[in-house]
Amino acid sequence: MSVIAYDVIVIGAGTAGLTAGARLASEGLQVALVTAGEPTACLSTGCIDVCAAGVNPLDGIADLPESHPYHRIAPAAIRDALLNFQRQCAGLHLPYTGAPDQNRLVLSAIGTFKTSCLVPVTMRSSPQNEEEKIHIVTFAGLKDFYPGYILSRLRNAAFSTYDAGVSTTMGIAANFEDDTFLEAFILWLEKLNLRENKIAFPAVLGLESAAAIVDTLEQRLERPVFEIPTIPPSMPGRRLFNVLKDHFRRQGGVIYWNWPVVGVEKAGRQIEAVRLESQGRPMSLNARAFILATGSFVGGGLSARRETIIEKVFDLPVFVPGTREDWFEQDYFSRNHGIGRAGIAADAAFRPDGCPWDNIFACGAILAHVEALKNGCGHGFAIATGEAAARSCLEYLR
Amino acid sequence: MKFEHCIRCTICVENCPVFRVNPAFPGPKQAGPDAERFRSDREKSVDDWVLLCSQCKRCEMACPCGVEPAQIILRAQQRYGREHPHTAAHLLFANNYYLSTLGSLTAPVANRFAATKIGKRIFRRMGIATYIPFPRFSFRTLRGEKKSISRGNRKVAFFYGCFINFYRPDIGRKIIRLLQSFKIDVVLPPQWCCGLPALGNGNLELARSFARKNVASLSNYIDAGYEVVYTCTSCGLCLLHDYQGIMDIPEAKKIAENSYDLHEYLLRLIAGKEIRPKFQEVHRTLAYHIPCHLRALKIGYPAAELMQRIPDLECRILDDACCGLNGSYGFKKINETTAVQLGSRAVSLISKTGAEAIVADCGSCRMQLGGLSGMASYDPAEILCEALGIRDKKQMK
Ligand SMILES: Cc1cc2nc3c(=O)[nH]c(=O)nc-3n(C[C@H](O)[C@H](O)[C@H](O)COP(=O)(O)OP(=O)(O)OC[C@H]3O[C@@H](n4cnc5c(N)ncnc54)[C@H](O)[C@@H]3O)c2cc1C
Ligand code: SF4
Ligand code: SF4
Ligand code: SF4
Question: Were A294 and a residue from A74, A193, A301, B245 both cysteine, which residue would form a disulfide, CB within 3.0 to 4.6 Å?
Answer without folding.
Answer: A301
